[in-house]
Amino acid sequence: MDHDLSEVDQEIYSCLNLNSPQSFFLFAGAGTGKTRSLVTVLKTFQDEKAQQLRYTGQKVGIITFTNAASDEIKRRLGFDSTFFVSTIHSFSWELIKSYQNDIKEWVRINTKKEIEELEEKERRGRPGSKASRDRKRKISSKSQRLSNIDNIISFNYSPTGINSGYGALNHAEVIKMTSDFLINKPLLQKIMIKRFPILLIDESQDTKESLIDAFFEVENKYNSEFSLGLFGDTMQRIYMDGKPNLGEGLPDRWAKPQKKINYRCPKRVIKLTNKIRGDQPQKAPEKADEGTIRLFIIDSDKDINKSDIESRVRSKMGEESKDKLWESSNNVKVLTLEHHMAASRSGFINFFAPLYNMSSDSTPLLDGTMRGIPFLTNQLIPLVNFLRNEDDFSATRLMKRFSPLLEPDRLEQSESAIKQIEKAKEAINEFYSLWEESSDPKLIDILLTIYELNLLAIPEVLKPIVQRTSEDLEVEEEGKLRDSVIEAWDSALESSLSEAVKYAEYISDESNFDTHQGIKGLEFPRVLVILDDEESRGFLFNYEKLLGAKEPSTTDKRNEKNGKETTIDRTKRLFYVTCSRAEESLAVVAYTQNVEKVKNHAISQDWFSENEIIILDS
């Protein structure tokens, strides 16, 4: 069957030769149809070469960035079992899950190391403080896990994040283990290439650096038997744990196809994004529309109503683009470059900020895999929703799956299974009475009630908090050597359930606001990009520096001199990703303390012409 392969698609397809495989890196900037190429090539492979794999029981491994992307590719390939399509976490577990003895030893060594680190902090800390008591609980919990390791028959892992019990592994452990095993276990390397002679990784620039390095190691050793295909664009790297400069310094034997035509954006947006990135310029199709872009600059030093300002921007964009649909917020996609801004505008900043600031690696919080988060998103919030909707069937089903009160062993050991079920119903009623006292109870109150009733299994990361006694709460805080994770959760749990619900909507792409992460691969007719340092509060990004209103810091200058990434580099990538979502027209709103500098910088960089810049007063 002819799937109309383009010249680039043909080059990729030729690499998937099972008798003479070749690895490749496809550079594909925004709007070039990267996923379309991936699916088109795989459909051709399905028609012409898949039978060869079926005879040998082998598969093509395809790693996608999200579950939604995985499901879409599976659907477009007709759910053909020749293709193993999954996220990186699922693929990693698929590789290592049979290595139970090795997993056991890895967990043993890693848990010992974690205990030693906690004990060292305890030795340096002040005895009797709240932080000390929290550390001791963590040491106790990890020591219990260590002492139970030999009794664990098998370790388990759920990519959805519902992992509990001593045999459960979390996301970070699975990724670390897979990287270590692929580097240090030659047998696993051979098993992987025999099972997956072709491995394709979509959005490879955001795949964990340690795993990418491990795959490179395998490819380098077995390149005559194994094809590693990377689809990506380093300018669209949005997570800090991705591999910087991916695609540079590849061996000459690698194919390096490029997709240069942007089918998504109008000509004027493509010209802007080419100027922003400064390399690998894209072209527009001959019949592409011209499109409209405008930069709106607002003096943030003045007393302004941002909601009113942005409403005026939409109205003005309707005039400038001759598109009345701009006037309705429902027809405009609002994109922010930083999560604090989205959290503030969407109403979950009190829950989000402490957890976001806790670590330099924010990826687990943003994709919902941070320890403790899946408990909220997959158990607590759904249970409350079922109770509110009087959906007893779904609530009971959730309880059967997660509640210690309805564990099979407990039901068998109880005098009467019916009485045990009644006890669970009473616990649910007592739990739900929290909403009679408060329309929006605090998360900490909800968790304490769950713990007291044994309604659901509290995640290990939150146990030190719910297990505190009244005496613990009276102890004066320690000034240093606190546990940053517990401290962050302490603050986050002071927020209400509604904030956690809004956070869950945000990471599920159900919010009115999106950031660069939420819109990866998506496109919208009308895009409004908001740049606002005051709301973003991020230390990794700075829009005033990007827009020329502030000078680069000493650290930025030093990093630039040493060839390292700067704040401006990171912010520019995010700016590129958001601007490149626009299919018809684009408005950029910049809140700044120096209007003239921003205007002059935008003109000098050839991002916007003078007649495309509008200064709005308060």
Topology (SSEs and partners):
Layout: H1 7-15, E1 24-28, H2 34-48, H3 50-56, E2 60-64, H4 67-76, E3 83-87, H5 88-96, H6 100-124, H7 130-148, H8 171-184, H9 186-195, E4 198-201, H10 209-221, E5 227-232, E6 258-259, H11 267-277, E7 292-299, H12 306-321, E8 333-336, H13 339-346, H14 349-357, H15 363-366, H16 373-388, H17 392-402, H18 408-413, H19 417-432, H20 434-437, H21 443-453, H22 463-466, H23 470-474, H24 484-492, H25 497-507, E9 513-514, E10 524-531, H26 533-536, H27 543-546, H28 554-561, H29 567-579, E11 582-592, H30 595-604, E12 613-616
Parallel strand pairs: 1-5, 1-6, 2-3, 2-4, 4-5, 7-11, 7-12, 8-9, 8-10, 10-11
Helix pairs in contact: 1-2, 5-8, 6-7, 8-10, 11-29, 13-14, 14-24, 16-17
Q: What can you tell me about this protein's structure?
A:
With 618 residues, the protein is α/β, with parallel strands linked by helices. The protein has four domains: 7-96 and 175-259, Rossmann fold (3-Layer(aba) Sandwich), CATH 3.40.50; 100-162; 267-338 and 515-616, Rossmann fold, CATH 3.40.50; 352-507, no CATH class. It contains 30 helices and twelve strands. The chain has a six-stranded parallel β-sheet with strand order 3-2-4-5-1-6, with helices on both faces. The chain has a six-stranded parallel β-sheet with strand order 9-8-10-11-7-12, sandwiched between helices. α16 (373-388) packs antiparallel against α17 (392-402). The longest helix has 25 residues, at 100-124. It is globular, with a radius of gyration of 26 Å. The protein starts with 6 loop residues before the first helix and ends with a strand. Residues 515-519 have low confidence and may be disordered. Pfam families: AAA_19. InterPro entries: DNA_helicase_UvrD/REP, P-loop_NTPase, UvrD-like_ATP-bd. ATP binds at residues 28-35. One of its GO terms (molecular function) is ATP binding.
